[in-house]
Amino acid sequence: MIPIGERINGMFRDVKQAIAEKEKKVIQELALRQTEAGAKYLDVNVGTAARDQLGTMKWLVETIQEVCDTPLALDSQKLDVIKAGLEVAKQPVLINSCRADAETLDTYFGICKEHNSSLICLTMTKEGVSQDVPKRLEDAMRVIEKATEHEIPMERVFIDPIILPINVDQRQPKMICEVISQVKLMTDPPPHITCGLSNISQGTRNRHLINRTMLVMMVAAGMDSAICDVLDKDLMDAWITTELLMNRIIYSHDYIKAALTSLRAR
Ligand code: THG
Fold it and tell me: Cβ of 103: how many Cβ atoms within 10 Å?
């Protein structure tokens, strides 16, 4: 399982303020706490408020690298912001994210090759997010084809089936789980599958419960990664327990502790 810590994102008020005031400690504490909680990557997103997005991405990457060597997921829709992060990153990163248009995939997989990066690809194109399973699968298969063409191994490819808030469209979860199982069926070896988990509960009142239940459904369908609140212990315990019940980790009375210990090992 590959948890990606979502908290270093300018969307959160504390991070936004830390960016504005160049307050390193807030960012560094989030980096350390998420690493301790089992994050395999730390998502780094400058948010929308920062005026100098390139400079902010560089500052965040450098600030985090001062205190830990947890791999980073550089999160931006803008390629020049990703490139700014790549310039200062001390080790291979996960690029988050790109759309599944053929030309876009060529550009991003080219960069992956050059920088030894991994890549999250969204199942959407410039035409937007499709509302049916076959269309999203078509996008996923284009990703696999392009990765193969660029000789990027599947261990470095992450497919994101795209989660929208539950109050926007209630048919999403079932459809997304269907996409996940189909991608797993159609590929060998399979790519990783990840998502922006907290999207599902935006604007709702039972955020933690909705996030946790959605995660369990998706992991049961075959998802092996998520950008999520790794500091939410109930969420992480439910994920680990799903891995156990799906026979992906071995049972012991202390299986949660054992799983967390192995997540923390680098
Ligand atoms: N796919 C990929 N990357 C992504 C997303 C995705 N990156 C960003 C996002 N979606 C995943 N990360 C978050 C981070 C925070 C929230 C949701 C998704 C969130 N934030 C609070 C809110 O909006 O209510 C912020 C408020 C606060 O607490 O201060 O919910 O889908 N590849």
Answer: 10
Q: Is the pLDDT of residue 236 over 80?
A: yes
- Atom 16 in ligand 1: residue holding the nearest Cα: 198
The minimum-distance atom of ligand 1 relative to the CA of 122 is 32
- Give the model confidence (pLDDT) of 154-188 as tens digits: 999 999 999 999 999 999 999 999 999 999 999 99
Predicted model pTM:
0.98
Distance 201 CA to ligand 1 centre (A): 10
